Each structure stands twice: as C-alpha cells, then as structure tokens.
C-alpha cells in the first residue's frame, strides 16, 4: 500500500509537469511549499493540482482507522423523516470515499438514549472511532469520553467541553436573517419558529441580537409565533389562527420563518387571507435545503450549512487521530444569504410597498 501511494504521488507530479510544461522538480517544490518558485509557476501548478484532485488528497492526508460508527436519531436514516440529517450522513460517507474505512450506523434517541446499546457498539473491537449526530444526551457524551476512542460531534455539544464538534453557527445565522430584513426597511417582523431543540433557541437568540442592534425591542407575545413542528401544515394552521385574530392595520410587513416547509405553510396562510407575497407581505426562511420556489414564489433565505457538516466532521476526526492532544473546540460554520424574490424593500414610514427588489445584498 505504501509503495502504491508513493507511485501514485510520482504519477501525479509527472502528469502535472506534463500539463503545465514545467519541470518535475518545479512541481515538486510548489507542492512541498518551497519559496524558490515564481508566482506564475506556482499558480499554474496549484490550478492543475486542484483539477486532478491532488489538493484534496494533500489536505486530507490519511485517515488512520478502518472502521467508524455514526450514532444518530432514527429519523436521520430516512430521507422523508429528516432530510437534513439524512444528507449530513450521506456526506460523512462521501468524505470517507478516499479512504478504506468501513462505515456503520446505530440509531440512538436524542435524549434518554440507550446507554447500553451505545457502550456495546463503542466497545466492539472493530469500532475505532465514532461520530455523534444530533445526540443531546449528556450521559452519552460522558460515556464517549470514558471509552476514550476518537469521537466528533455534529450539530450537538458536550456541555463539559471535552469532545470536538462541528455545527452551524445557529445564533449568527438567526442574526444574519433578521438583519437582512431590517436592512430592507422592515421593522414590523413576525418570527415563526419551532423551538424543538436548543439549536432553534440559539437562532432565536440571534434574531433578538439583531433587534437589539437596530434599537428595537423584541416582544415574545407580539413578535413570535411558535409552531409545534417544522411541517407546512402546522405552520399554516398556527399562522392562520393568528391572522384570524389580527386586523389588517396590525399585520407585520415581513415574516421570518425557521424552515422552508414552514415558510410554505406561512405563504399559504397569507394567500388564503388575500395577501400577496412579496407585494403585500415579505417572507424569509432559514433552512438547510433552500427550496427554490414555494407557491411559485422564489424564496429568499439564509442557507444553513448541511452537506459541509459531514465533510468537516471527517476532517476533524482525522485531525484528532493525527494530533490527539491538540486543543478541543467547536467549528461553527457560517450561513449563506440567498436573495430571491420573496422579500421586498420598503420605504421608511411605509408598511407595505411593492417597490424595488432586494438590491442591497444582490451578488
């Protein structure tokens, strides 16, 4: 295997040299990070190396294990039950394709997890490392530390700060979304969230931060609707009930919604009230899959990193294997603002004005 690896490396260097018409020694110096090469040669080599996938191999190096177990809630293994976690797991698998690693799975509840099942899997001789996806049970985190095998958390946290983790920066993502609405002139914003996990509470905290930054006071009774789930149906029902008891003059100029499916329910409720999106009311979402259109309305949203979580967790696990005594921390991934057509700019002093499209954040 070692000999094959060296041979493959030589072949890549020769191929890059042939493609760039540079010498093998020049290519070798660039890939080794040496300073005695021209900027032009360096750029040519690096561009070619990226095309050939050499850079990925250099960044990833080797994963010093042969078997990995992913623990996650049962719904994570069914695309229809939880597409977000399902795709995260897919990208853990994708991140392992360059290595000869056997990937196994085990379903655990988020809280009140089966500790005996966890220990049984962790103590198996073939289990060399683990990834915990969305497991909030602190007892499981304690056991993971006690077992002592490399373990990385995805979208959850060890409150005692002993296990490395990668997660979306939920608080900053919430703040980004609310700040965008404020930048578009909105001041009367209704937030619709499902607060099932602490991650949603973090997003709400970020939304509150944005209100405070803009010298606005967030009032839970006035500015927050809590939906029991992330489904379109329950969001529509919750918003419809609220609309039925709210006169037109008290309607917000925008809804900030914690999920694309929920946003579909909100838009449906607004349309049944005779309100157009975005001409009468703007709607913005925070989600990981960013549906292109809802009810024929291209949806403005903050995209929560999803596919990147699995890939980064594999890299983080690799770093733990190479540097087991390195400092432990949490990698927080930024969200991405996607501007489409469901949010309109409104003029100061105007509540609902179908004027110019979102120009401030357009790429």
TrEMBL record:
Keyword annotations: DNA-binding, Repressor, Transcription, Transcription regulation
User: Superkingdom of this entry's organism?
Assistant: Bacteria
Task: Write one Pfam family the protein is assigned to.
Answer: LacI
Q: Which InterPro entries match?
A: HTH_LacI (IPR000843), LacI/GalR-like_sensor (IPR046335), Lambda_DNA-bd_dom_sf (IPR010982), Peripla_BP_I (IPR028082)
**UniProt domain HTH lacI-type: residue ranges:** 11-53
Q: GO: which molecular function terms? A: DNA-binding transcription factor activity; transcription cis-regulatory region binding
**Transcription recorded as keyword:** yes
Q: PROSITE patterns recorded for this chain? A: HTH_LACI_2
The protein in question is named HTH lacI-type domain-containing protein
Whose protein is this, by species?
Citrobacter koseri (strain ATCC BAA-895 / CDC 4225-83 / SGSC4696)
- What phylogenetic lineage does the species belong to? Bacteria, Pseudomonadati, Pseudomonadota, Gammaproteobacteria, Enterobacterales
């Amino acid at each position: 295997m070692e000999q094959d690896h060296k041979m493959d490396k030589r072949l890549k260097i020769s191929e890059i040299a042939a493609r760039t018409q540079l010498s093998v020694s020049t290519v070798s110096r660039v890939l080794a990070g040496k300073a005695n090469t021209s900027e032009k040669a360096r750029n040519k080599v690096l561009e070619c190396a990226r095309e050939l996938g050499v850079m990925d191999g250099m960044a990833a190096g080797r994963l010093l294990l042969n078997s990995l177990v992913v623990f996650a809630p049962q719904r994570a293994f069914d695309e229809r039950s939880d597409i977000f976690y399902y795709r995260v797991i897919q990208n853990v698998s994708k991140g392992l394709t360059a290595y000869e690693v056997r990937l196994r799975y085990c379903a655990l509840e988020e809280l009140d997890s089966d500790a005996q099942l966890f220990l049984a899997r962790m103590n198996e001789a073939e289990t060399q490392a683990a990834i915990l996806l969305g497991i909030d049970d602190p007892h499981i985190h304690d056991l993971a530390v006690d077992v002592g095998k490399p373990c990385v958390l995805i979208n959850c946290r060890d409150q005692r700060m002993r296990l490395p983790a990668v997660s979306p920066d939920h608080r900053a993502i919430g703040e980004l979304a609310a700040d965008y609405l404020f930048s578009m002139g909105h001041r009367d914003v209704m937030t619709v969230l499902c607060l099932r996990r602490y991650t949603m509470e973090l997003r709400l905290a970020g939304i509150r931060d944005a209100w405070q930054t803009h010298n606005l006071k967030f009032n839970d009774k006035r500015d927050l609707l809590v939906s029991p789930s992330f489904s379109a149906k329950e969001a529509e029902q919750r918003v419809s009930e609220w609309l039925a008891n709210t006169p037109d003059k008290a309607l917000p100029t925008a809804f900030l919604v914690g999920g694309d499916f929920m946003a579909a329910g909100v838009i449906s409720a607004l349309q049944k009230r005779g309100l157009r999106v975005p001409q009468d009311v703007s709607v913005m979402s925070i989600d990981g899959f960013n549906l292109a259109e809802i009810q024929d309305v291209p949806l403005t949203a903050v995209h929560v990193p999803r596919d990147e979580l699995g890939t980064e967790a594999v890299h983080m696990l690799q770093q733990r294997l190479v540097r087991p005594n390195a400092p432990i921390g949490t990698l927080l991934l930024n969200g991405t603002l996607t501007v489409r057509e469901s949010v309109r700019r409104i003029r100061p002093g105007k509540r609902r004005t179908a004027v110019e499209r979102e120009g401030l954040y357009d790429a």
